[in-house]
Automatic annotation (TrEMBL):
It holds the Pfam family Alpha-amylase. This is Alpha-amylase family glycosyl hydrolase. One of its GO terms (molecular function) is hydrolase activity. Gene3D superfamilies: Glycosidases, Oligo-1,6-glucosidase, Domain 2. Residues 25-407 form the Glycosyl hydrolase family 13 catalytic domain. CDD domains: AmyAc_OligoGlu_TS.
């Protein structure tokens, strides 16, 4: 079992460190490549820890690096207690954790409990064992409908497109809410629960500081697997629908209580769930004292660049966690959504608005999740058809381009691809030639760069007492604007999404997202006042 003495004094000091931490999501394939194969890896991350310390983050979240055939780039896990050779080995993981802790950066890792790879030994045993076997009972196998069983057991659809069921040669069907290569586990089976506990302890004993739980509102299936209501726009995992029986079933809370019980034996560790649930009371149920420490909040991701929409997202988020006493979490981008520079309009306008929303996000009380590359102002990339690898592309019949555009490798230095990401000419996804001005090297010494804005804002957030308050007070503001204050800390954050400059609230300017206009706040700009 991990001991507090295994950590540096700064890391070991506080058991609830996560309550106001800044996490940095590393999409492992795209961060840094140490061996020249064009794919990011664990030693590549380790080589950039100095950059992450300079940026000012408190913890990492690593996307899956486990053994996998990579049908969904690692979210199809064949062995959850080993490192895929593509990313290194267990020794490389241990080196990364040890070095991160030396840099006073904690390490959290992805956990994928809803499903396994179809090449997991359990699923291969299930295929061999046949209907009615103990091996099949670890997954969700059912007989088909119709006189000959040729129709799926229900009408559920996959998040990646097409039916959520695949038929095997002996006639039965298995459930996969995602790709056919990702069969859903049966969480009513005691071996499934015992195996997850084994996985939790395996990584906790190696020194990880916590977990991000993939599809944390999944896993539990409703009794009888009733049909879902099919609408013109079929709800997927990145949406919330109270009538969707695939997700947010009450039985999931027993699973999270089991996870929490394990983690309580490892002081100073935490778990955050990917919870696409908008109802405040149902969301709050996931972060009760005996369940998850934190729940991912996607309201800022879903909000347009509009003062009223952003304020509503903030108020709903704070209202949901107020029911449980848990800190709110805030994020603008991740590996599943279009990068926010592009969402906010792209080009110079999108960058200007992204800078403004960065100050809004970092002014809020609670936990911040940054996505690798957002601090460089990276946009989504329109990749050529031949480069697309997301399973959504094939499953949708080439109608949905998927998530590859937000996963393009990070540009570190130089003027041409691969921009220091790798020594390989061809990276797993191609980088745009015009990214030369977005490299970390190009931005590091430029005081007006996106990277400099992030560094300065994170430094203020960490060291300035104006950020101490955990509650917000709202000021009156012109249409298209808002201003709030950190109660007890004193920081005022103001945002202007209107089309004209407006008077600044009273206070001394601490930091602005763009050039100021005297005592006026320009459009598409945010400011911190102390």
């Amino acid at each position: 079992m991990r001991r507090s003495s295994d950590l540096s004094p700064e890391i070991a000091e506080e058991s609830a460190w996560w309550r106001d931490a800044v996490f940095y999501q590393v999409y492992v394939r795209s961060f840094a490549d140490s061996n020249g194969d064009g794919v990011g890896d664990l030693d590549g991350i380790r080589s950039r820890l100095g950059y992450l310390e300079l940026l000012g983050v408190d913890a990492l979240w690593l996307t899956p690096f486990y053994r996998s055939p990579m049908a969904d780039h690692g979210y199809d896990v064949a062995d959850p207690r080993d490192v895929d050779p593509l990313f290194g080995d267990l020794a490389a993981f241990d080196r990364l954790v040890a070095d991160a802790h030396e840099h006073n950066i904690r390490v959290t890792v992805d956990l994928v409990p809803n499903h396994t790879s179809d090449l997991h030994e359990w699923f291969q045993e299930a295929l061999q064992a046949g209907p009615g076997s103990m091996e099949r009972s670890r997954y969700v196998f059912r007989e088909g409908r119709g006189f000959d069983g040729s129709q799926p057991p229900n009408n559920w659809v996959s998040v990646f497109g097409g039916p959520a069921w695949t038929r095997v040669p002996d006639g039965q069907w298995y459930l996969h809410l995602f790709a056919p290569e990702q069969p859903d586990l049966n969480w009513d089976h005691p071996e499934v629960r015992a195996d997850l506990e084994h996985t939790l302890r395996f990584w906790l004993d190696r020194g990880v500081d916590g977990f991000r739980i993939d599809v944390a509102h999944g896993m539990a299936k409703p009794e009888g697997l009733p049909d879902m209501e099919i609408r013109t726009q079929v709800p997927g995992v990145l949406s919330d629908d109270a009538h969707d029986p695939r997700f947010d079933n009450d039985g999931v809370h027993e699973i999270h209580r089991m996870i929490r019980k394990v983690m309580d034996g490892y002081p100073g560790t935490m778990a955050v769930g990917e919870i696409w649930v908008k109802d405040d009371e149902r969301f709050a149920a996931y972060v009760r004292p005996d369940e998850l420490h934190l729940g991912f909040n996607f309201r800022l991701v879903e909000a347009d660049f509009d003062a009223d929409a952003v304020r509503s997202a903030i108020e709903h988020s704070l209202g949901a966690v107020a029911l449980s006493g848990t800190p709110a979490t805030w994020t603008l981008s991740n590996h599943d959504v279009v990068r926010h520079v592009t969402r906010y309009g792209g080009g110079a306008l999108g960058e200007q608005r992204a800078r403004a929303m960065t100050l809004v996000e970092l002014a809020l009380p609670g936990v911040i999740y940054l996505y690798n590359g957002e601090e460089l102002g990276l946009p989504n990339v329109e990749l050529p058809d031949w480069a697309l690898q997301d399973p959504t592309w094939e499953r949708s019949g080439h109608t949905e381009r998927g998530r590859d555009g937000c996963r393009v490798p990070i540009p570190w230095e130089g003027t041409t691809p691969p921009f220091g990401f790798s020594t390989a000419v061809n990276t797993w996804l191609p980088q745009p030639n015009e990214w030369d001005h977005l490299t970390a090297e190009a931005q590091l010494e430029d005081p007006g760069s996106m990277l400099s804005l992030y560094r300065e804002a994170l430094e203020h957030r960490k060291s300035n007492t104006s950020f101490a308050g955990e509650e917000l007070e709202w000021y009156g503001a012109p249409a298209g604007c808002f201003a709030f204050r950190r109660k007890g800390g004193g920081l005022i954050c103001a945002l202007n999404t209107s089309g004209a400059s407006v008077p600044l609230p009273p206070g001394q300017v601490l930091l602005s997202s763009g050039p100021m206009d005297g005592d006026q706040l320009p459009p598409d700009t945010a400011v911190w006042l102390a």
